[in-house]
Specification:
54% of the residues lie in helices and 14% in strands. By secondary structure, it is α+β, with helices and mostly antiparallel strands. The chain has three domains: 158 residues, Beta-Lactamase; 101 residues, Signal transduction histidine kinase, dimerisation/phosphotransfer (DHp) domain (Helix Hairpins), CATH 1.10.287.130; 186 residues, Histidine kinase-like ATPase, C-terminal domain (Heat Shock Protein 90), CATH 3.30.565.10. The strands form three sheets. The protein has a five-stranded mixed beta sheet. It has a four-stranded antiparallel beta sheet with strand order 2-1-4-3, with helices on both faces. A hairpin with a 4-residue loop joins strand 1 and strand 2. This is histidine kinase. GO terms for molecular function: phosphorelay sensor kinase activity. Its main location: membrane.
Length: 502
């Protein structure tokens, strides 16, 4: 998060420094070039004045020596030319050599011989290698008898400009370095409460409602946010604890009177007449009492499981090794066949209560509710969590997000029985919901709902889909698909499958 903040701040600071530095750099370059031009202009003006006197008096030797000395000292050829362009005084060879590479020379000389002071030639950019040509007429108006021309190499001027630009760039880096040096610890101080809130939210998503944020660090606004977060979590934890306590206490308090009521009802059996309607009513009462006891047991189990929200890695082979034989025996007793198609070596995150208990519930539904002939248990790995529609890849529970990035294991329990309509599948995961076809079949309507909650708490998803094709070709049966994140395989005894509490 700090890096993202610096990614935003540093480019803005660079743009600000550039907005100030670029005009300043242009001004520095223009000033250096202007100083060079003014120096050359002063030189040719002085030489033009001396040349006018020397030519009129016929004494040109002193001026010729001074022009040669100037060229020797500064490396700048200066020549006095006549109206035909012939060099009268100065280093003719150096002048003519320099003149060959200057296309603007003829224009400037022509203007000077016409009595005007032409504009300087060449590009003034430091990266251009053209020379500076400056010409001054000798004489005035119609009495112009020649011109003084200099051809100046601007390499030294450009080097000075580049040096000044480098100095400005170095000065511009100082505020950027200072910004990073200040922003890094300040951003850490500002964002530390945000990271702690993020970590607390991650722990809460795992079911740990006791976690609280640090309300003593960071800016005032974030401290207030942390205090509000803690107050909210206090209220949520109290509400959840009251809800769980109510379910547990109500189930426990109802268990004793319900058991007493069942014993009292069952004690009436010897007093019933064999041929009366009392035995039918007696049977209905006992069945209802048994159903109420199963309901209380399910509510207590749900309350216990919801208080534990820790997912742990488990080998699917180890889970199936303790379950498949019993499933085969149950399906054989019911006149069904069981097929298991699970590749070896799958490792995934096990929900609270044990993966085996969840699969037991799904097999039990296939046996009791579907009226199926064949049941199939299959598993496969979906790379990267593709094919899931719930929060498998975004859950923060126990590193689930990283596990989902490695893939998702889907375990499907399919049958070729009655199945349920697509419109009923979403409702089937609600608590106490039962299909109208199963009202006379024993059950509480809590099994699938509890399984879906446990799988979701482990960062997975329980989906209901179409099952195997029915033998008569009238449609498809029922399928429950459990999608759980892949767990990394490590050679550590601490990752051994945990015993199921259910």
């Amino acid at each position: 998060m700090r890096r993202r903040l610096l990614v935003v701040l540093v480019p803005l600071a660079v743009l600000l420094v550039a907005a100030l530095g670029v005009p300043l750099s242009v001004t520095v370059a223009e000033r250096e070039m202007q100083e060079t031009y003014v120096d050359r202009l002063n030189d040719v003006g002085r030489f033009a004045s001396l040349a006018e006197t020397a030519l009129s008096a016929g004494r040109t030797e002193a001026l010729h020596q001074e022009l040669a000395r100037y060229h020797e000292l500064y490396g700048i050829p200066v020549a006095v030319i006549d109206t035909s362009g012939t060099v009268l005084l100065g280093p003719a060879g150096a002048y003519q050599e320099a003149a060959r590479s200057e296309p603007a020379l003829s224009r400037i000389v022509t203007a000077a011989l016409a009595g005007a002071r032409p504009e300087p030639s060449g590009e003034w950019a430091p990266w251009d290698d053209s020379a500076l040509v400056v010409a001054e007429p000798v004489g005035r108006d119609s009495e112009v008898v020649g011109a003084v021309v200099t051809i100046s190499d601007l390499s030294q001027t450009r080097n000075r400009i580049l040096l000044r630009w480098a100095q400005l760039a170095g000065l511009g880096l100082l505020p950027l370095i200072a910004l990073v040096a200040v922003a890094w610890p300040v951003s850490a101080w500002v964002l530390r409460p945000v990271r702690e809130l993020d970590a607390a939210s991650s722990r809460i998503s795992q079911g740990d409602l006791t976690i609280r944020a640090d309300a003593e660090a960071g800016p005032v606004e974030l401290r207030r946010l942390a205090e509000s977060f803690n107050t909210m979590m206090d209220a949520v934890e109290n509400a959840v604890q009251r809800q769980r306590a109510f379910v547990s206490d109500a189930s426990h308090q109802l268990r004793n009177p319900l058991t007493s009521l069942r014993l009292a009802v069952e004690s009436l059996e010897p007093h019933l007449r064999p041929a009366g309607n009392g035995r039918q009513v007696y049977g209905v009462a006992v069945d209802e009492l048994k159903a109420m006891q199963r309901m209380l047991n399910s509510l207590q189990a749900s309350a216990r499981m919801e208080s534990i929200r820790t997912a742990s890695p488990v080998d699917l082979d180890a889970v199936l090794a303790t379950r498949v034989d019993r499933w085969r025996a149950l399906t054989a007793t019911a006149g069904q066949t069981l097929a298991v198609d699970v590749p070896p070596g799958l490792r995934l995150l096990e929900p609270t209560g044990g993966l085996g208990s969840i699969l037991d519930e799904l097999i039990s539904n296939a046996l009791r509710l579907s009226d199926a002939r064949a049941v199939e248990v299959s598993a496969r790995v979906v790379p990267g969590g593709a094919g899931t529609s719930a929060g498998v890849s975004t859950s923060a529970a126990g590193g689930v997000g990283a596990s989902a990035a490695r893939g998702v294991v889907t375990i499907a329990v399919r049958d070729d029985g009655q199945g349920i309509d697509a419109s009923e599948r979403a409702q089937a995961l609600r608590r106490f919901w039962r299909s109208p076809r199963h009202q006379n079949v024993s059950g509480t309507g809590l099994g699938l709902a509890i399984c879906a909650d446990l799988v979701g708490a482990a960062g997975g998803e329980l989906r209901l889909e179409e099952g195997l094709p029915r033998p008569d070709g009238s449609g498809h049966g029922f399928a429950a698909v459990v999608a759980l994140p892949v767990a990394p395989r490590v050679s550590s005894s601490s990752d051994a499958p945990a015993p199921s509490p259910v």
